[in-house]
Amino acid sequence: MRLMLWTERRSFEVPIPMALKPALAGIPVGLCLIWIPEVTGIGVETMRSTLEGNVFGMGDLAVILIVKLVLTAVCVGFGLATGVFTPALVIGLLFGAFVGQGLGIVFGSGHSDLGIFAVCGAVAVASPVIGAPLSAILIVFELTRNYELTTAAMLSVVFANLVSYRIFGRSWFDRLLLNRGVDVSQGRDHLLLQSQSVAESMDSPLVTVLGSESLAEVLTQMDAQARNLAWVVDSQHVLTGTLRYEAIRLLLIDQPDAVDWPASQAAVSTSAVFTPETNLATAMQQVANQNQDWIAVVDGGQHRRFLGIISRAKIVTTYQATLDRIREEEQASA
């Protein structure tokens, strides 16, 4: 799986149009069709020949295994239409047969049949790739109706998934989604919140003042709107800070002449801001570490113009509504 990710990263460095990159991967596929046809296609014939035990020697298995591994990584990385499930089965089966033949040479008789090693190798490689260990075990049992073989496959799947999780992480498909910003391990509620942006729940601030206005004018507007928080912007409508009603009153008690101060002089800068593209999952994580009831929403461009506000209560309410929606769907399906 790491090899497929590596070839995918290298493919972006090849200076040819994206539409031609699959054709570039087709070159080694065509060469393999001439010299090593066993590594091309779905691999049904290759698996059948491997399970027969007398078609491929250890050298043949090693060559086919390495070429199949590299060819699959190149095809996936360069976008040539292919999958990962059947190649993983073939690669695992070849590796299992290679190990089985090696043990046969070392120990002679008295070890398990080659087919057991091959099947265990196939499910051991395929199950971490697709992220379905139980399905792989059930497939073995459904196809063979053999409890002993299923038990052996179960052990190989368990150890393979433990090793894969330590080295690579989750399955190949989970990694692809994670590279695109979708983390399925966070649960359905997180995914639904990721699909909703702050812009959908944004409100307009009731009190917005220019930094050049005096504190007396700010108090007049806050009294008229019955609000205890004002948002201070400059002439370009860029947010410079906030003013609280109680803070202004305390300041005027200590310094009565401050009534003529410009709002920008007494404004308190705010570091917690969102952009319209910020999803509610990120917003929920940030408000958990903030003690602000209202968070500013600014333009994501260079000037970061003040666009609106969003309340902590609305974020929490949306999160609770998402949980209720998931619960209703689960109860309906049950």
UniProtKB/TrEMBL annotation:
<dbReference type="Pfam" id="PF00571">
    <property type="entry name" value="CBS"/>
</dbReference>
<keyword id="KW-0869">Chloride channel</keyword>
<dbReference type="InterPro" id="IPR001807">
    <property type="entry name" value="ClC"/>
</dbReference>
<protein>
    <recommendedName>
        <fullName>CBS domain-containing protein</fullName>
    </recommendedName>
</protein>
<dbReference type="InterPro" id="IPR046342">
    <property type="entry name" value="CBS_dom_sf"/>
</dbReference>
<keyword id="KW-0813">Transport</keyword>
<dbReference type="GO" id="GO:0005254">
    <property type="term" value="F:chloride channel activity"/>
</dbReference>
<keyword id="KW-0406">Ion transport</keyword>
<feature type="transmembrane region" description="Helical">
    <location>
        <begin position="61"/>
        <end position="81"/>
    </location>
</feature>
<feature type="domain" description="CBS">
    <location>
        <begin position="202"/>
        <end position="259"/>
    </location>
</feature>
<dbReference type="InterPro" id="IPR000644">
    <property type="entry name" value="CBS_dom"/>
</dbReference>
<keyword id="KW-0407">Ion channel</keyword>
<feature type="transmembrane region" description="Helical">
    <location>
        <begin position="87"/>
        <end position="107"/>
    </location>
</feature>
<dbReference type="InterPro" id="IPR050368">
    <property type="entry name" value="ClC-type_chloride_channel"/>
</dbReference>
<dbReference type="InterPro" id="IPR014743">
    <property type="entry name" value="Cl-channel_core"/>
</dbReference>
<feature type="transmembrane region" description="Helical">
    <location>
        <begin position="147"/>
        <end position="168"/>
    </location>
</feature>
<keyword id="KW-0868">Chloride</keyword>
<keyword id="KW-0472">Membrane</keyword>
<feature type="transmembrane region" description="Helical">
    <location>
        <begin position="114"/>
        <end position="141"/>
    </location>
</feature>
<keyword id="KW-0812">Transmembrane</keyword>
<keyword id="KW-1133">Transmembrane helix</keyword>
<dbReference type="Pfam" id="PF00654">
    <property type="entry name" value="Voltage_CLC"/>
</dbReference>
<dbReference type="GO" id="GO:0034707">
    <property type="term" value="C:chloride channel complex"/>
</dbReference>
